[in-house]
UniProtKB/TrEMBL annotation:
Protein name per its UniProtKB record: Precorrin 6A synthase
Pathway the protein takes part in: Cofactor biosynthesis; adenosylcobalamin biosynthesis
SUPFAM superfamilies for the chain: Tetrapyrrole methylase (SSF53790)
Domain Tetrapyrrole methylase: 40-258
Record has Transferase as a keyword: yes
Keywords recorded for this protein, A-Z: Cobalamin biosynthesis, Methyltransferase, S-adenosyl-L-methionine, Transferase
Length: 304
């Protein structure tokens, strides 16, 4: 008998909870059998097609349709890059690429509410695509930059879609190489220092003040150039833009010495390409830091 894993436990088909008022449950149990669409949330790396893992390649080839968002303007480069990845790795004939326009998040003083409404709007689009572009047992792919778990909303949107209860589907998540991983690799640095924590945050948060609990901070989204006001001129910054792409830019050095140059490069790159995606790591000076660990593992196996 087939089983479905739900929140860490397996349910037999006949034990699956049903609600006759939910469209998804009526569809799931149509004709007395399990009918379940599947969505594969696939991390595709930071921009280099060679970042794809074998698991991601296999996931792409398992999909009947791939949903590709359009954001318009210069960001159509990202659509073309997704299409390039599909053309390079999908071996099945005539893969179905479904383009859709990504809604724009409204500017609102209530940021969490604006983001939540935006996610609900995207969930509604995916719901329509699942209903119109594939059968009740089809598999759809959603290609996500970097790794879906790190500063990406696709997983939350999938949960919104499940909560709506109108389409029967399940989903899985394929990890990918994040821009933070590429940043550290390009600068040839480990993410963490021995015995020290790392804070991962946004420029919006960093602009409100650098917490004293972490000597290292990684910033994933920065539209305000928060590094300029970090108040740590002697800190080291490792910065990268368009990581993994042919447009990649790298800068590192003492923050007080290179902050203005980074800002100049950001402005020039945005003017040239119409958009920018950058990531950086700032490290306070090592003097005064005290290792919190008594032992230093040589590798992950030694730490186990």
């Amino acid at each position: 008998m087939s089983r479905l894993r739900v929140q860490g436990q397996f349910l037999r088909r006949n034990d699956f909870p049903r609600d006759p008022c939910r469209d998804a449950d009526r569809e799931r149990w149509a004709h007395g059998g399990m009918m379940m669409r599947r969505v594969r949330v696939i991390g595709i790396g930071a921009g280099n097609p060679e970042h794809l893992t074998m698991e991601a390649v296999n996931a792409l080839n398992s999909c009947d349709a791939l949903f590709l968002p359009r954001k318009g303007g210069e960001k159509d480069f990202l659509v073309r890059l997704r299409e390039q990845i599909c053309g390079r790795y999908i071996t099945r004939k005539d893969p179905k690429l479904v383009h859709f326009d990504m809604p724009v998040r409204r500017k609102d003083s209530n940021y969490p509410a604006a983001v939540d409404d935006w996610h609900l709007a995207i969930a509604g689009i995916y719901e329509q695509l699942l209903a119109e572009e594939m059968g009740p047992e089809g598999t759809a792919g959603v290609l996500v930059w970097g790794d879906p778990m790190l500063y990406d909303s696709t997983i939350r949107i999938m949960e919104h879609l499940r909560d709506r209860g109108r389409i029967a589907f399940d989903y899985d998540v394929i990890p990918g190489i994040s821009s933070l991983q590429v940043l550290c690799a390009r600068h040839r640095i480990p993410l963490n220092r021995i015995g020290q924590p790392v804070e991962i945050t946004t420029g919006r948060r960093l602009a409100q003040g650098w917490t004293t609990g972490s000597a290292d901070v990684a910033v994933m989204l920065d539209g305000v150039q928060a590094y300029e006001g970090a108040g740590e001129p002697d800190a080291q910054i490792f910065w990268g833009a368009y990581l993994g792409t042919e447009m990649e830019i790298l800068v590192s050095g003492r923050l007080g010495d290179v902050a203005a140059e980074i800002s100049r490069l950001r402005q020039a790159a945005r003017a040239k390409h119409g958009w920018i995606m950058d990531t950086y790591l700032i490290r306070r000076p090592a003097s005064g830091l005290t290792a919190q660990d008594e032992t230093v593992p040589l590798n992950r196996e030694d730490a186990a």
